[in-house]
C-alpha cells in the first residue's frame, strides 16, 4: 500500500486528458491531487471519474486554476463560492478536501496524519524592501503578471490577501489541535517556504506563489513531509529535517509524453529508502 502524489494536471490541455486515461490502476494505493486539476467543474469531474476508479482513495487541495471564474459573467461562481462548489464535487466522489477531518494513513509505518490544506498567497514572497501592497506593481514593472489578477476573484473577501489571512487563521487553528505524537503530512498547492521558489526567467512571479504566514509551519508542528506543486519544477528538498516534495506534472511542454503520467507519480509513503536519511 502506497501514498502517491501529483499536482498540476492542467486538464484544459487535451494531451494531458488523454494521458490521464492511460494511467495504470493502483487498487490498493492512495493518491494526493495537489491542485490545478483544471479550470472548470468539468475538468474536476473528469479527473475524479478517472482516478477514483484507479486508486483506493483520493485527497484534493485547490490550486489557483481550480478557482478561476471562466468566463466572468454576472451569475458565475466566484471566490469562496467556487471553492465550496469544488469541495462539494469532491465529496460526491468520496474525495477528501481541506474541509474534511484529517485522516490517519492506514499503512504499517508510524502514525501519519494526512492534512490537505488551502492556504492562498498574499504577495509577501517579495524582497523585504517591497511592501506587499506594492508587490503587483513591482512585478508588472518587469513585464510579469499572473492571470489570477483577472480570473481569481476573492469574493466575499475584499482581496486575495484577506482571503489568504482567513485561510491561514483557520488552518493554524486546526493544526494546533493535532496531537504532537502524530506526524503530519501537509498538503498544499503552494510551497510553504519562499526559498523553494527559483524562477530564473521571471523571478518576480514569486509573489503569486505563497505567503510568509506559513514559513514556520513545518517546524511549529510535528511535520514529516510537505507536499506541494504550483511551480512546475519537480523537486525533493529538505528544510529543518522535513521533506518538501514538489509533485507537479504541468503543461504538455513540462513533461515527457513517452513516459506517461504514471512515471510522474511521487511516492510519499512509505518513505522511499533513498529519502530516509536525508
Task: Describe what is shown at a glance.
By secondary structure, the chain is of the alpha/beta class. The protein is 23% helix and 18% strand. It is built from 7 helices and 10 strands.
**Whole-number total of structural domains:** 1
Radius of gyration from CA coordinates: 18 Å
For the largest sheet, list the strands in their spatial order. 4-5-6-7-9-8
Task: Indicate the CATH architecture.
Answer: 4-Layer Sandwich
Shape, please? globular
Give short descriptive properties of this protein.
Purple Acid Phosphatase, chain A, domain 2, 6-stranded mixed sheet, alpha/beta, 10 strands, 278 residues, 18% strand, 4-stranded mixed sheet
Structure description:
This protein has a six-stranded mixed sheet with strand order 4-5-6-7-9-8. It has seven helices and ten strands. The protein has helices at residues 14-21, 41-51, 79-92, 135-140, 148-151, 160-176, 217-220; strands spanning 3-6, 26-33, 55-60, 103-104, 112-116, 183-187, 223-228, 235-239, 242-246, 266-269. The chain starts with a strand and ends in a 9-residue tail after the last strand. With 278 residues, it is an alpha/beta fold. 42% of the residues are buried. Helix 2 (41-51) runs parallel beside helix 3 (79-92). The chain has one domain (3-275): Metallo-dependent phosphatases (Purple Acid Phosphatase, chain A, domain 2). The mean pLDDT is 95. The longest helix is centred in the middle third of the chain and has 17 residues, at 160-176.
Amino acid at each position: 500500500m502506497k501514498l502517491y502524489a501529483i499536482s498540476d494536471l492542467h486538464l484544459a490541455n487535451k494531451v494531458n486528458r488523454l494521458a490521464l486515461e492511460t494511467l495504470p490502476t493502483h487498487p490498493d494505493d492512495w493518491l494526493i491531487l495537489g491542485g490545478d486539476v483544471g479550470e472548470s467543474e468539468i475538468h474536476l469531474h473528469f479527473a475524479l471519474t478517472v482516478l477514483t476508479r484507479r486508486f483506493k482513495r483520493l485527497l484534493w487541495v485547490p490550486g489557483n486554476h481550480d478557482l478561476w471564474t471562466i468566463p466572468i459573467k454576472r451569475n458565475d461562481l466566484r471566490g469562496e463560492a467556487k471553492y465550496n462548489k469544488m469541495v462539494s464535487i469532491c465529496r460526491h466522489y468520496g474525495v477528501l478536501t481541506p474541509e474534511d477531518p484529517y485522516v490517519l494513513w492506514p499503512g504499517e509505518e508510524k502514525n501519519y496524519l494526512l492534512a490537505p490544506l488551502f492556504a492562498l498567497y498574499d504577495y509577501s514572497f517579495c524582497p523585504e524592501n517591497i511592501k506587499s501592497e506594492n508587490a503587483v506593481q513591482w512585478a508588472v514593472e518587469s513585464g510579469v503578471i499572473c492571470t489570477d489578477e483577472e480570473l481569481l476573484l476573492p469574493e466575499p473577501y475584499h482581496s486575495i490577501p484577506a482571503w489568504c489571512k482567513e485561510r491561514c487563521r483557520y488552518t493554524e487553528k486546526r493544526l494546533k489541535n493535532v496531537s504532537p505524537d502524530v506526524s503530519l503530512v501537509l498538503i498544499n498547492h503552494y510551497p510553504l517556504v519562499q526559498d523553494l521558489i527559483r524562477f530564473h526567467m521571471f523571478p518576480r512571479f514569486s509573489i503569486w506563489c505563497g505567503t510568509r504566514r506559513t514559513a514556520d509551519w513545518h517546524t511549529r508542528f510535528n511535520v514529516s513531509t510537505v507536499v506541494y506543486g504550483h511551480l512546475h519544477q519537480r523537486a525533493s528538498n529538505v528544510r529543518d529535517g522535513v521533506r518538501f516534495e514538489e509533485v507537479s506534472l504541468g503543461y504538455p511542454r513540462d513533461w515527457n509524453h513517452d513516459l506517461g503520467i504514471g512515471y510522474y507519480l511521487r511516492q510519499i509513503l512509505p518513505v522511499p529508502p533513498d529519502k530516509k536519511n536525508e
